[in-house]
Write a structure and sequence with these properties.
alpha/beta, Rossmann fold, single chain, 15 helices, eight-stranded mixed β-sheet
Length: about 375
């Protein structure tokens, strides 16, 4: 099934994507030192310097891929044993890969962390993005090549190219829906998922809320950065936030807006229903902020009733609410980021991956109605 999905996607996109998508930017950070010194290394990073993502250029011969991967940041990958089970961060549709820097510096997990800009964000620029859509109606109402399936396939290609058999995924906002797509289409490549302020089941009511939220951001602010600043959502003195802002200046704001709109539209087309979530057997950790987009928002991104529904439906191992936080500052504020990092560390370190995979497919193979386990 997976091979068929990959082949069909490649055939569909190969005729147009090579000329429209220039690159996918990837970031990777790990350590060549011993496991014990990895903990020490990440914990003693210079607090006055942004998290040291390191970029690596992939040879040009791989440009024939539907979406060319042009840079990957890593340290030590290939010089020693490859990380068997890295953490892959997937950002929200209004941000980019650098949004996870503060959490990354607080992780103890020794097996490497990877993050990648979604198409149209960060350094993953798509040439003539507007021209991917033939009519104004298509531009407004269809997701086209920017959708959950293709985003998920980009991450699969990333893992495959570097010979990484599987990974944990951590998705923030829209990134949580990409995590769902990865677990659904490529279950053997995903060890488990941490869903941060996203991934709730989509129906007509919840889709209306998502659309309203996006329109609020799009109509009020000239850019995602301005949204973060003017809402007072993030402490601008945070060194990683400053690095995120500088990195974001390379983005074309019109492209970011259009790509975000397409991603939002793809939720209607591809996001899983509650019934589909029941089939996912991967271990899950759920994290949400207390507030919405900014401090004082009475309605959180995921309300208590929906969170409880997700907890009972999914194979949930832990659930936390980061008290005092909002959708943005939970990623940059030191105390919030540390709470999230500790939750991720505990989650990914708590499972024997081979045993989990073996049991997972015993449970779901050939089964048509599967109820979530406690």
């Amino acid at each position: 099934m997976l091979k068929k999905v990959l082949r069909s996607s490649v055939k569909t996109n190969s005729s147009t994507s090579s000329s429209t998508a220039r690159k996918i930017s990837c970031l990777f950070h790990t350590s060549t030192k011993s496991e014990a010194s990895v903990y020490e290394d990440l914990k003693t990073l210079n607090p006055d310097e942004a998290f040291p993502w390191i970029e690596h250029n992939i040879p040009k011969r791989h440009a024939q891929h539907p979406y060319e991967i042009s840079s990957l940041s890593f340290n030590g990958l290939g010089k020693s044993k490859k990380p068997p089970n890295p953490i892959v961060f997937i950002h929200d549709y209004t941000t980019n890969s650098k949004v996870f820097s503060t959490i990354a510096r607080k992780l103890n997990y020794p097996y490497g962390i990877v993050t990648m800009d979604l198409k149209g964000r960060g350094k993953t620029q798509v040439t003539d993005l507007n021209q991917l859509y033939n009519t104004q109606e298509e531009k407004e109402k269809t997701s086209g090549s920017l959708n959950l399936v293709n985003h998920a396939l980009d991450f699969v290609r990333l893992l495959t190219y570097y010979g990484l058999p599987r990974a944990f995924v951590v998705g923030h906002g829209f990134g949580a829906n990409i995590a769902y797509m990865l677990m659904n289409k490529c279950p053997d490549r995903i060890s488990g998922a941490v869903l941060i302020n996203g991934g709730y089941p989509i129906n007509k009511a919840s889709m209306a809320d998502v659309t309203q939220l996006h329109e609020k951001i799009a109509s009020t602010f000239a850019s995602p950065n301005e949204a973060l600043f003017l809402q007072g959502a993030v402490n601008s003195e945070n060194i990683d936030f400053k690095s995120f802002v500088e990195f974001s200046k390379s983005q074309n704001n019109d492209d970011v807006r259009l790509a975000a709109t397409k991603d939002l539209r793809s939720l209607e087309d591809y996001a899983p229903s509650l019934e589909e979530l029941i089939r996912l057997r991967h271990p899950i950790a759920l994290i949400r902020s207390e507030h919405g987009l900014k401090d004082g928002d009475k309605k959180p991104i995921i309300d208590t009733k929906v969170l409880k529904s997700m907890e009972t439906t999914l194979n949930t191992k832990s659930v936390i609410t980061v008290n005092g936080s909002n959708h943005y500052n939970m990623l940059f504020d030191e105390k919030y980021a540390e709470q999230i990092a500790n939750t991720i560390d505990k989650f990914v370190s708590g499972y024997d991956i081979h045993k989990i995979i073996e049991q997972r497919f015993v449970d779901i193979k050939g089964t048509d109605d599967i109820k979530a386990e406690e």
